[in-house]
Each structure stands twice: as structure tokens, then as C-alpha cells.
Amino acid sequence: MDTPAVAKPNEAQDAQDLTDGFHLVIDALKLNGIKTIYGVPGIPITDFGRFAQAAGIRVISFRHEQNAGNAAAIAGYLTKKPGICLTVSAPGFLNGLTALANATTNCFPMILISGSSEREIVDLQQGDYEEMDQLAIAKPLCKAAFRVLHAADIGIGIARAIRAAVSGRPGGVYLDLPAKLFAQVMNREAGEKSLVAVIDPAPAQIPAPSAVKRALDVLKNAKRPLIILGKGAAYAQADDAIRALVEKSGIPFLPMSMAKGLLPDTHPQCAGAARSTVLQQSDVVMLIGARLNWLLSHGKGKTWGGAKKFIQVDIDPKEMDSNVEIAAPLVGDIGSCVAALLDGMAGNWTAAPADWTGAVKAKKDENIAKMAPRLMNNNSPMDYHGALGALRTVIKERPDAILVNEGANTLDLARGAIDMYQPRKRLDVGTWGVMGIGMGFAIAAAIETGKPVLAVEGDSAFGFSGMEVETICRYNLPVCVVIFNNNGIYRGTDTNSVGSDPATTTFVKGSRYDKMMEAFGGVGVQATTPDELKRAVDAAIDSGQPTLINAVIDPAAGSESGRIGNLNPQSVLRKK
Ligand code: ADP
Ligand code: TZD
Ligand code: MG
Asked: Does 504 reside within a domain?
């Protein structure tokens, strides 16, 4: 390996034949089709942002790295290319790391690139500016972590990061780039040659024919089959094949939160409104890109009402039997697996038993009818259902808008109330149920798709990333944020019975979040009825202007922890 050269200013002729670390990283990203970087600038990456912009990469500058990281993660989910987040060292890196860990947990491909201090000083712990052994810290929290020390290795480093992020089960990758690397120079031609255009970064993984047959045999013998679609199925972008499989099989399907819209929630086979019934009564369940984690009660217990046979379609073989026995593991990428299942069904497939599909439909119609009047109320102050009824109509009328959603009641009730009609239009708190994804997801969704974004946020949830409304205004993005303002976490009515401090779950009463948007030149609206709310959202989407609507919700309307109150240690204790 050559010792890194340092450019001498008087060697003008030579300098023309040189490139440096900054430009090699930028060229490597561009070569691999990366068009946008999300980040926060500072030493040592300020110049990087300038050079990247000059080279035609869009650089979106955030107010906090966690939001930039969340933006990169969801960009990865939406595009199947790794989203890039760029941060400074130690504190900037740590701020971005939460998003990287969350991306890995959710199987979203992203690359966190952080500048870092000099190895010599870090390793001797001599107290460099923002010193930290970032690679060691990132390693257990992501899918892969790499460091590049020599400019000549930048091409390979970026190639490895891209491949690691998108191949197999997608996830987060950390790439450590010490400050010195950016200033290293090398011969331009050698530099160009060192770059790698990653060929077929996420190769198809074809399932074994015997595994396909086994899955079809189990499915064929089912009396009460169910298909569960997860966000892995949405990520795979095999929309037509999945729809064909569902329709050909005639089996009721249940979409997980972010898989809503893969087939429309209004599809005759959608069992979303009969969730408890189908989980309890099904005898064979085919999971497609969904894990049997806490969100599915681990595949056992009361929710599931007795033993079932599971077929699981997933790219990660280790996922099989993670919670219960999988009778028919089908390992491969979803596009290839679903195509193989369809092939196997060609000719002699009998649709799912009519008594079962009829029973599911009856239950679903009953539940939808029960919910309908609640969603139509025009109460003021609004309750959740009244406000959500208005937003449900907005999405029905504008099915290509992207819905971002976080909070507790605001999340759980919106998930049920707002029907989705198109794939990858619902982005939410994901596997961890993490608060703080809101503005990062909204910004990246607007940038990556050019579609209008509606972010429906609990007032607490919004607070985790709220400063990014400035970013939304700065880039003039078509984002409409609706805050369900109930004065607090779950409810705004708690009191502190023993002291003068406010209760821990309450916020300043009657806050006007709409004024935050106005502070940065966006549109702020206060809405106190569902009609007002609907009008304000329509105006925001029609105009495309950054808008924040403070939707005043009855502070007594919510329940503790939304619908997962059963996970509270107190309620577990109460049950004992
Ligand atoms: P949900 O929360 O919607 O139930 P999960 O995040 O739990 O979804 O599950 C997603 C699953 O999809 C993961 O187990 C992941 O390995 C899998 N997955 C992601 N992309 C693909 C793909 N292209 N092909 C097959 N499986 C995939
Ligand atoms: N911190 C992080 C990062 N994630 C979390 N999930 C929480 C804290 C705990 N938490 C929830 O699980 S929901 C929630 C918190 C703080 C906020 C709920 O309040 P909200 O929604 O105003 O957003 P509602 O409509 O008032 O229920
Ligand atoms: Mg709230």
C-alpha cells in the first residue's frame, strides 16, 4: 500500500492528475446510483457536503442526525437502495446510531457514514476532538461495519457497504471514514480504476423446489387458511405477483401495519377488520415477509387460539422456528418465492373453502359497520375517531399520498381507521414502536417519491423530531403535519397528586404547534372540528406548501399506552 501523498501547491501540473478522498467517496456513491445524502454537517465532513452538492448529489441538511438517519432508513425502504446518512464524529455519530439500529431492526437498508478522529490518537485515548472508537460501538448495533484507512480502498469500502446493506435481509451498515482519509490524494486515473460499480447488489435467492412443494401441500390441505403480509413483502416490490397469489388462492389476507395498501384495504379478501377472528380461527397461516415477533404475539397464546401450521416465506433462514415451529419454511426472496408458488398453483388450484371466507367476510362487514358512525362524528373538541374519519376520507380521495404515522392512540387508532390503497404508502413506528421517526420519514418520503406527505403525529411523538419543520420549510417540501394535540402522552388529563410539578405525561395545555410552522414561513392552522381539519389538509395538499395543523383533541379521549397497555409492568402485576 502506498503511503498517502500530500499535494504540494506548486505542483500545479501534477495536481490536475490527482484526486482525493472526498471526491473518491462522492464518485463511488454516484457510480452506484446514490442521488441523495441525508445528514448534518461539521468537522470533518463540511467540505464533503459542499463537494457532493457540486457533484450533483442532493444533500439534505437536517437539524439533528437522528432525523437524518431516519430519513436515510426510510429512503432505503422506499427505493431498495441504501439510504445514506452522513454525520460528524462521536456525538453526531451517536445521534445517527439510533436510526441505524432502528433501520437494522426493521430490515431497512441504510449506510451511516461518519467522519472519525485519527486512529493513532483514538487508539491511545489521547483525547482528540470528538474522540470515540466508533467502529467498535457501531458493530453490535448494525448488520455490518467497515473502516477505510486508504484512499485506494474507498471504492471497495463503499461497495462492501452497499452489498451488506441490501443483500439477503436488508439492514444498517456503518462506514467509518477518518478525517485524514478525506484529504489523502492519489493519481486520478488510479483512483477512477479503484472504484467499484456493484453488480447485482441484492441477488435473487431462488427457493428450493421441494420447499415450494411442501408449502403448497400444507396450504392445499388447509380448511381455514390465512395469509399475513408484512413490510418485507412491501419492501420486495413484488406487488403484482403478491396480488396474483392472494387472488388466485382466494385466501383472506391480513396486512401488517406497513404492508397496508400492498393490496387495497378495501379488497374483498382483506381481513384487516376481522383481525382477532382470523388469528384465532385460522388453521394454516402463510407469513410473507412478516416475523412472528411481539406484533404477532409470538405466534402463540390467547391471540392465536390454539395450534396452527405456519408457512413462512422469508429471505433469512434464521428467522424460521424463531418463536414457534414452522411447518413449511420457504427461504428465498419474496419475488422468487411468490412466483414459484404461483407456478405450482397453475392449473389445479381450488380456492379457499367458502364457509371460511364467508365467515371472515361476515365478521369484517359487522366490524366495519360498527365503526362507521364513530368515524363520522363531528364533535368539538374532536375525539380520535372524528378526526381520523376526516383523514380517512383525505387518503381515500388521494390514494397516492404517503401517510407517516406515530404516537400511541394516534398510531393505533389511525392504523385501523385509515384505509390504504397503494403499496408502501404507510410509514410508521415499525418493529420497535419507536417515537421520533415522523419528520425524518416525512422528509425522505417527499424527496424520494415527489408525492404529497401527510404526517399524523401524536403531540408527544412529534416532539421527538419537531425541529425538522424548519427543514421542511427550507426545502419547501409538500408535507402536511397534523398534530393530534391532546395535551400529552396518551391523555392530557393526568394530575400529580403529591406535588406541584405537572404529571409526567402532560404537556403545556392548549399549545399551538401551528405557530412553529409559521415561525419558518410555512402555513399554520388550528383545527377544532373534523370539517375544519379536512378542509385544512385538502388546502395543504392542493397547495403543496409546508403546513402544520394543530388538531385539538379532547384530552380525556385516549387510553394509556394506546392499545399495548397490556405490556406495561403495572398491568402485568395487576393480572397476577
Ligand atoms: P412486519 O413488522 O410488517 O411484520 P417484519 O419487519 O417483522 O415485518 O418482517 C419483515 C421480514 O421480511 C424480515 O424477516 C425480513 O427478513 C424479510 N424480508 C425483507 N426483505 C425481503 C425480501 N426481499 N425477500 C424475502 N424476505 C424479505
Ligand atoms: N421513547 C421512544 C424513543 N419511543 C417510545 N415508544 C417511547 C419513548 C414511549 N412512548 C410510546 O410508546 S408512545 C409515546 C411514548 C413517549 C407517546 C404517546 O403520546 P402521543 O400520542 O401524544 O404521541 P397519544 O395520541 O397522546 O396517545
Ligand atoms: Mg398526545
From this structure: yes
Ligand nearest to the CA of 485: 3
Please state the atom number of ligand 2 nearest to the C-alpha of residue 484. 25
What is the number of structural domains in the chain?
3
**Would residue 258 count as lying in a domain?**
yes
Q: Check residue 568 and give its pLDDT.
A: 75
Taking alpha carbons only, the member of 290, 324, 322 closest to residue 307 is: 324
Whichever domain contains 287, its CATH number is 3.40.50.1220
pLDDT per position as a tens digit, 42-70: 988 999 999 999 999 999 999 999 999 99
Specify whether 354 is located in the same domain as 477.
no
331 lies in a domain?
yes
488 lines ligand 1 (CB under 6 A): no
From CA 216, how far away is CA 44, in angstroms rounded?
55
Report the pLDDT value the prediction gives residue 13, as an integer from 0 to 100. Answer: 53
Q: Which of 105, 110, 169, 323 gets mutated to test ligand 1 (max ligand atoms within 8 A of its CB)?
A: 169
Tell whether 356 and 393 lie within a shared domain: no
Q: 463: Cβ–Cβ under 8 A, 6 or more apart, which residues?
A: none
In a domain, 133, yes or no: yes
Distances (CA, A) of 450 to 251, 258, 352, 539: 34, 19, 40, 18
Q: Give the model confidence (pLDDT) of 206-232 as tens digits.
A: 999 999 999 999 999 999 999 999 999
Residue 293 CA: which ligand 1 atom is closest?
7
